[in-house]
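Fold it.
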Amino acid sequence: MTLPDLDDLIAEVDRRCGNALRPGDQEQPDWLALLTVASQLAGQMQALADDLVEDYVEHCRMHGTSWADIGSALGVTRQAVQQRFHAPHKRYSPETMTDDLGQAMTQVKLAAVQHRNNYIGTEHLLWGLTAQDNGATRLLQDAGVSPDAVHRSVGSRLSMGASQAAERIAWTPYSRKAIALAEARSQRNGSDRIGCDDLLVGLAGVGRGVAADILTEAGFQPAEADSGLDAPVVGA
């Protein structure tokens, strides 16, 4: 794969920006408009680069690599790498979730432990959300999608692993992104706690991963079913 050089990126900015100066044009381009597009493109590339690193950090953790060794590989301290990549375990505590989501998260971890998986994937999150009646299942029903059918579909895709270290369960990058989208949605709706419906919309909004595939196959369209999902997914 050939990475783009600076000229390629400048050309892409010009292509995206309708105010870019074209050959033969006499008018000056709108430099602020071009700067805005350049900043957006840089942000998307940075987010993609971050996702790439996060994905390999998670795989290192899944295979028993210590935080100290991961930090050494990245040229930072153990504390710095833990703070950056271990955030979901600290940030999304029970106090940040509704009671329903707290109960669903119990099912999420149970699914991971029972299948001996040392990670929380989007499939585990969707399994927990559809295990019992809550805001997520009601949102699915409102959209004409059967929660039970989704739950069975998730169950058929949960694979048995070999982990016996439940305390080392790590969140995958797509799961991190889903719950970040869920938090943003809850805040837009004026709530200080993340609900099951927020996480369902977040899983669909990621656009990748097992949960997004299952929801798409089931016909769940978050943009139609819920107006809360109005922010673009950067770097997904």
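Strands lie at 119-120, 170-171.
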